[in-house]
Amino acid sequence: MNSELFRRNQSNPTLQTHNSVIGPPRTPAGCSIKFRSPIRYMLREQRLLFVFIGVAIATLLFNVVRLTFPLELRDDQRYQAALNAFVRLDSSIPMRRVLYETHREGSLGRVNMAGKVPPGLKKRILRIVVTGGAGFVGSHLVDRLMERGDNVIVVDNFFTGRKDNLVHHFGNPRFELIRHDVVEPILLEVDQIFHLACPASPVHYKFNPVKTIKTNVVGTLNMLGLAKRVGARFLLTSTSEVYGDPLQHPQAETYWGNVNPIGVRSCYDEGKRTAETLTMDYHRGLGIEVRIARIFNTYGPRMCIDDGRVVSNFVAQALRKEPLTVYGDGKQTRSFQYVSDLVEGLMKLMEGEHVGPFNLGNPGEFTMLELAQVVQETIDPNARIEFRPNTEDDPHKRKPDISKAKELLGWEPSVSLRKGLPLMVSDFRQRIFGDLKDDASSSSSAAAATLSTLSTTSSV
Ligand SMILES: NC(=O)c1ccc[n+]([C@@H]2O[C@H](COP(=O)([O-])OP(=O)(O)OC[C@H]3O[C@@H](n4cnc5c(N)ncnc54)[C@H](O)[C@@H]3O)[C@@H](O)[C@H]2O)c1
């Protein structure tokens, strides 16, 4: 009687208490069929038939939608569609933008379409990002790219770069300047990436060594990631410092270097070596188009005054009538390349078909004392020379072997030290003494322009 007061599937509190004492809980009758025999459950009451009917209806609907709205094209159709779209559009729209937007990210072998302009179409305008474009080398590179008619985006955190170096492009619709630290990721739609962002002089890169190595490693990773994402060609500006204190002279690209991994310069040397490794791994592993330049000492207008680099030091000291400070015995050698030669080499490397690394430098070798003499001849014959103890890990010899760049890029420097130095001196004079201050940036552009003409006529 008591049990009649409960429904079939409800439990009797008396029984519950009993169960909890004498054995395992009993499963309700309906559930026991479900769990013990799912196959029998499916076969009952024509359930299986309803499942088949459901699947058939879903398949039918899927095919109808797919045929009505064809979302997916085969790869060759995809390429053809992109080409057709390109031909219909104004030919000034960069081809890459049309193509890479049709690509699946990371699809190897199809992400890099640089240089593939259909015959008969006029040269496309490239979108190029220059990291570190407000710095010394970067700003000269930007000048040349703008002159060529490209769209240029400069990304710079202004650690050593200056807006003054680019002010003559402000207002040009083809030019953009973004304050950004490359240690943080950035997304831009571009065809080429010139990755220069990194302090280059010992004074600056030793200022915060951890930041320097982060810029080289994390910054390079971020820019390679961008290259992968948008299918851009990537150029790394590495350095002759990867050879360390070289045991081979002159240094060819095949030489692996002699670098102190724990020295005060390692944040820069080893940072750049790692950046080269990352660049090659992205190339080999992910099919990214990359280029590597190993830059040797470069000088010219817009170098930071007092940045500790030997040419800028001597020029600033001679102009201020201070003694020229020579570290060590002054017999250590360097080669000095004028900035317009370097920019020419970087552009040839980016446009060429070879990955590198390529040494870009002037093989004309000078001891520090010889350089001091050239500065005396150019600025002040009475300038005194003062000797100081040498700095740690300062390499004894540095001279590029540029045979590879000559042969594969058809590049060699053409501006001699005696021709280039006076152009740098006039820029430094204006910045140090402030005469013709307002014209300073335009005069350094003019100097660079003069040098592009010079580079075709003079020899090392
Ligand atoms: N000038 C040379 O003699 C020489 C030699 C070898 C290699 N390089 C390489 O060439 C490149 C340019 O050198 P440079 O002489 O023009 O130096 P620079 O110091 O004048 O220019 C470097 C630029 O990078 C910017 N920058 C630095 N860290 C950054 C960051 N984290 N995010 C964004 N921007 C950052 C600076 O503000 C500056 O504008 C560097 O990568 C350098 O290692 C130069």
From TrEMBL:
Cofactor dependence: NAD(+)
Bias kind Polar residues: ranges: 1-20
Residue ranges of every copy of the NAD(P)-binding domain listed in the record: 130-422
Transmembrane segments: 48-69
Sequence ranges of Low complexity compositional bias: 441-460
Spans annotated as Disordered: 1-25, 437-460
Location within or outside the cell: Golgi apparatus, Golgi stack membrane
EC numbers for this chain: 4.1.1.35
Record-linked Gene3D superfamilies: NAD(P)-binding Rossmann-like Domain (3.40.50.720)
UniProt-listed InterPro entries: NAD(P)-bd_dom (IPR016040), NAD(P)-bd_dom_sf (IPR036291), UXS-like (IPR044516)
GO biological process, one term: D-xylose metabolic process
GO cellular component, as recorded: Golgi cisterna membrane
SUPFAM superfamilies: NAD(P)-binding Rossmann-fold domains
Pathway(s) this gene product operates in, as recorded in its UniProt entry: Nucleotide-sugar biosynthesis; UDP-alpha-D-xylose biosynthesis; UDP-alpha-D-xylose from UDP-alpha-D-glucuronate: step 1/1
A Pfam family the protein falls into: GDP_Man_Dehyd
Membrane-related topology note: Single-pass type II membrane protein
Gene Ontology MF terms in the entry: NAD+ binding; UDP-glucuronate decarboxylase activity
Keyword Membrane attached: yes
Sorted UniProt keywords: Decarboxylase, Golgi apparatus, Lyase, Membrane, NAD, Transmembrane, Transmembrane helix
Role this protein plays: Catalyzes the NAD-dependent decarboxylation of UDP-glucuronic acid to UDP-xylose. Necessary for the biosynthesis of the core tetrasaccharide in glycosaminoglycan biosynthesis.
UniProt family annotation: Belongs to the NAD(P)-dependent epimerase/dehydratase family. UDP-glucuronic acid decarboxylase subfamily.
Name by which UniProt lists this protein: UDP-glucuronate decarboxylase
